[in-house]
Design a protein that fits this description.
alpha/beta, Spore Coat Polysaccharide Biosynthesis Protein SpsA, Chain A, nine-stranded mixed beta sheet, 10 helices, 9 strands, globular
Length: about 260
């Protein structure tokens, strides 16, 4: 890997004008110099296009057209990617300024590692830090047991692996990242770096809040697809999550009152 390999960042977006500019600025403010930034907008009608057009000179590519959703937009973006390192940053999340520089430095020094990830703060609608994502070291065996602990916002992986394991499964609405992590982990090592690289925004319209119940069923699809047992820990975690769902929803509602 070159000392300053090109990093491609894809931002999928749809009607996120409230947060989109902050997301864009967090990419453009990186201390790392070699970035290809692609924005895939799904045909927004809320003022997002005006924001995107403002930054056109600094974008490698952008489009605003109807798509099949977030997963489709990410796949289309990565199909255009020329970088050696890839990541996607959703249009309500943000990077910390040092994220890409530190991620590339580690990947360059550890060719055996295909995906690295750091820590991510939880932030609210006003970008106030309200918590920390429970990131921790995991691997293929742990992932298949439901021990994920990878914040997507703070994750970077090699394009050479994406070319083998991708694209994202368009049938997944929520767990497409988990599915990708499993496929990447089957090919290469994963490494957790205890450095804060991103902010994961929680807000009333985020699918983490509105559609969280879709996550575990999709993860189970991956589990069973790969020959997983009905007695595996991930299955029991799914049922425990269902039992705890009323409390989880109540706590999240309180967060936005």
């Amino acid at each position: 890997m070159k000392s300053t390999p090109l990093v491609t960042i894809v931002t999928p977006s749809y009607n996120q004008a409230m947060y989109l500019e902050e997301t864009i600025q967090s990419v453009l403010a990186q201390t790392y110099p070699s970035i290809e930034y692609i924005i895939m907008d799904g045909g927004s009608t809320d003022g997002s296009l005006e924001i995107i057009k403002k930054y056109t000179p600094k974008l490698a590519h952008w489009v605003s057209e109807k798509d099949r959703g977030q997963t489709d937009a990410i796949n289309k973006g990565f199909a255009l990617a020329k970088g050696e390192v890839l990541a996607w940053l959703n249009s309500d999340d943000t990077f910390l300024p040092n994220a890409l520089e530190e991620a590339v430095k580690f990947l360059s020094a550890h060719p055996e590692t295909g995906l690295i990830y750091g820590d991510a703060n939880y932030i609210d609608e006003k970008s106030k830090v309200i918590g920390r994502f429970p990131a921790a070291q995991t691997d293929l065996a742990k992932l298949r047991r439901g021990y994920v602990h990878i914040p997507q916002q703070a994750s970077f992986f090699r394009k050479s692996l994406w070319d083998q394991a991708g694209p994202l499964d368009p049938e997944f609405f929520f767990a497409m990242d988990y599915d990708l992590w499993v496929r990447l982990a089957a090919l290469s090592g994963l490494k957790y770096i205890p450095r804060i690289w991103a902010n994961f925004r929680l807000h009333a319209d985020a699918k983490t809040i509105t559609a969280d119940d879709q996550c575990w069923p999709e993860m189970l699809k991956v589990h069973y697809r790969d020959g997983g047992s009905k007695l595996a820990p991930i299955v029991f975690k799914h049922y425990l999550r269902k039992l705890a769902a009323p409390l989880i929803r109540w706590r999240r509602r309180k967060l936005f009152e």
